[in-house]
Amino acid sequence: MSTYGRFPLTLVRGAGCRVWDDRDRSYLDFVAGIATCTLGHAHPAMVQAVTQQMQTLHHVSNLYYIPPQGDLAKWLVDHSCADRVFFCNSGAEANEGAIKLARKYAHVRRGIENPVIVTAQASFHGRTLATVTATGQPKYQQNFSPLVPGFHYVPYNDLAALEAVIEALDAETPQVAAILLEPLQGEGGVRPGDQAYFQRVRQLCDEKEILLILDEVQTGMGRTGHLWGHETLGIEPDIFTSAKGLGGGVPIGAVLCKASCDVFQPGDHASTYGGNPLVCAVALSVCQTLEREHILQNVQQRGEQLRSGLQTLASKYPHLISEVRGWGLINGLELKPDQPVTAIEVVKAAMQEGLLLVPAGPQVVRFVPPLIVSAEEVEQALALCDLALAQV
After folding, report:
1. Which of 87, 124, 151, 367 is catalytic?
2. Do 156 and 272 share a domain, yes or no?
3. Which of these three, 271, 292, 313, is where a domain ends?
4. Contact of 141 with 135, CB cutoff 8 Å
5. What domain range includes position 118?
6. Whether residues 184 and 52 fall in one domain
7. Is residue 316 annotated as a catalytic residue, yes or no?
8. How many independent structural domains does the chain possess?
9. pLDDT by residue (tens digit) across 270-317?
10. What is the pLDDT of residues 129-163, one digit of tens each?
């Protein structure tokens, strides 16, 4: 179906931080499957995990215990504040599962008849009916009504607005079941969360028995320089979600939660493919490689290098660029709204120079390379971006 506005580019193979098209031209990949290819392309650890598991057992039903699933769940629990994990296939499904978990918790633990989940404007949580409703961007919801009831939107990083909404919704009887936020808004323009804001949100949730859900689909698995984006904010969620980088490009998602809010029982939620042996073996290889090769340190160093270089470009093109922002290896270059150049034009110009980038809204160019990117590759990307900006 015609659901994608594709670039005129056919990619056929990849290695590390580079991909090649069907004419054998190479590109430096600073899209990484949109913050997904954690270890780049054709990483030996992933190749080995896929090969070995495919030769052993690639899929069985969740009617049975699956050792790689247990191993992956244990790694995630050992490396986070979570006690429980549910595996699915994507970020949207993970967020859908978190929404269901929060709604059941509201019904059975707090006696809320019609629970409301508060989300942020400019957020992005997925394309299912529930997650597209949770997404605070009307452009994604157009023509898909009736939307799922039970969601309310507030401006991101605006504490007064959030407190006012909670007070209004809970004025007569408690309605707010959960607050669902991204630690850093990705599709909303690479907008980092404010630490003081999130710490007060955590406090509010504790005071009012509201669940705090964090969407870590794009910010998790080391992308921000910490394993989880909420570590940057100095808080712990009750529930958080992961996907994208978790499998390094193999489809997997996860709902992670503390034991105190795990109200799911057999039959409440399920997934045919979720957590099957193949994807869990690959995801575990990604997790172990992150740890074994100290990749988080590389993310921090290369992120600082990239932001410094982008700031230099912002100084060189002050008429074009208004701001550089981000954490780790998720960074945005915001273009000034009062000039005719858009993010998509910069992305197209960069592609002509041999650099793959991705927009994050109409005026923000997003840089999300594999977490294994080298200092030399960051310098190459900055040079190519300079040529693209000069071109536009």
Report:
1. 124
2. yes
3. 292
4. yes
5. 46-292
6. yes
7. no
8. 2
9. 999 999 999 999 999 999 999 999 999 999 999 999 999 999 999 999
10. 999 999 999 999 999 999 999 999 999 999 999 99
Is the same domain home to 255 and 366? no
The verdict on 189 and 308 lying in the same domain is no
Check which CATH number belongs to the domain holding 356 and give it.
3.90.1150.10
**Active-site residue, from 29, 215, 238, 262:** 215
Are 112 and 209 found together in one domain? Answer: yes
Is 215 one of the catalytic residues? Answer: yes
Told to judge if 170 belongs to the known catalytic residues of this protein, a careful annotator would answer no
- Paired tokens of 104: 């059941």
pLDDT at 288: 98
Selected catalytic residue, list 30, 87, 238, 244: 244
